[in-house]
Amino acid sequence: MQAVKITEHGDTDVIEYGEYPDPEVRQDEVLVDVKAGALNHLDVWVRRGLPTLSLEMPHVPGSDAAGVVEAVGEDVTRFEPGDRVAVSAGVSCGDCEFCRDGDPTLCVNFHLLGEHVTGVHSEYAAVPADNLIAVPDGVDWTTAGASTLVFQTAWRMLIDRADLEAGESVLVLGASGGVGHAAVQIADYAGAEVYATGSTVEKLEYARDHGADHVVNYEEQNFADWIREETGKRGVDVVVDYIGAGTWRDSIKSLAKNGRLVTCGGTAGGNPETDIPRIFWNQLRIVGSTMGTPGQVDDVMDLVWDGTFEPAIRDVLPMSEMARAHEIIEGREGFGKVVVRPDSEL
Q: Which of 123, 203, 276, 334 could form a disulfide with 1 if both were Cys (CB 3.0 to 4.6 A apart)?
């Protein structure tokens, strides 16, 4: 089969698209004929290399994909050939204390398809049945292949970890990014007053069209000062910050007393300076969040499938142009997700 491969960590020139061995389907796995996938900033980090990663090369990346079931392992009962499915990338052991207590995202062996093990940016992918969800007829492959990671991540961040309630206020940084544009829609759906940042008129208009009540261009105005002005110096109840080093202190400054900063990553750096006096004096909470439980995935994806939430699509490219897809993500061109499809599907 044809697959995207990185041959070593480095720049976009380490990305190839070519022959790769057909996957072997284990007894608890499903063979998926991939129709579409999508990039996340995670794919850029995997390509560049992370201190915690030790991957066998060549490595097939990709955590988002959707397609048709081609075959199933002997222990699989939830799916059968011909079913339409999407990938949910978080893999847990099922046996540790956290898994047994009902939250596999806290699994001591938690890992992601495409990051720690072989991913799904290929013509075919063997995926554990537990990592697949059904895609209804009528949902296009672009939507199905682009939605699961960012919407489950944003849903858990706001609804579960931040305990967002109707009537509260939320600031979403980077509202045009994958998680950001999902978070704007979810915060609006939850009944919050939504503040959003972006870097262009087009990105801010998209945020307004999808639930933001107030927007600011962070390249023209400091967003923390803007929040203090907009809220009469009160601040917001929740800040969604997946950017990290460049925004962390201003995110903390933007919070009201007893506010919550919730994060799922640090795309601009993972070791920011912080503001301990403001944290303890205003009794703030810093909350981490990773992916979503199967129940949370089902809840939010039902709202994607019925059109309540809408993934923004920057571009649709053949997998052979994966290097260009990485450049779009790294260059912050446009907003939303970059979708990739096997060349044989175009």
A: 123
